Every structure is written in C-alpha cells, then in structure tokens.
C-alpha cells in the first residue's frame, strides 16, 4: 500500500514552509516521524 501522493505533498510542503528543510531531507523521514513533526508544528501554531 502506498501513501496518497496528495497527502505526502501536503505534509512535505507544510514542513518545508515552517522548517525550511530541503526536500530530500523531508522525503527521507519515515511516515510516522513526518506526521509527528507535522503535529508538533500544528501545536506550535495553535492548531
């Protein structure tokens, strides 16, 4: 099973916007780790 491409782009864009990390670094993250970063950024933004 593959992760939905649209959701992957959404997560990567969100993290790239906030962390300014290179695309390769973001894509190298395992899915659970990337989701954890997304959740942390959301919490920091009051979400």
From TrEMBL:
The record's section on Pfam families has: DUF6760 (PF20546)
Q: Which domain of life is it from?
A: Bacteria
- InterPro entries cross-referenced by the UniProt entry: DUF6760
Q: Which residues form the DUF6760 domain?
A: 3-45
Protein name in the entry: DUF6760 domain-containing protein
Species of provenance: Streptomyces camponoticapitis
Q: What is the lineage of its organism?
A: Bacteria, Bacillati, Actinomycetota, Actinomycetes, Kitasatosporales
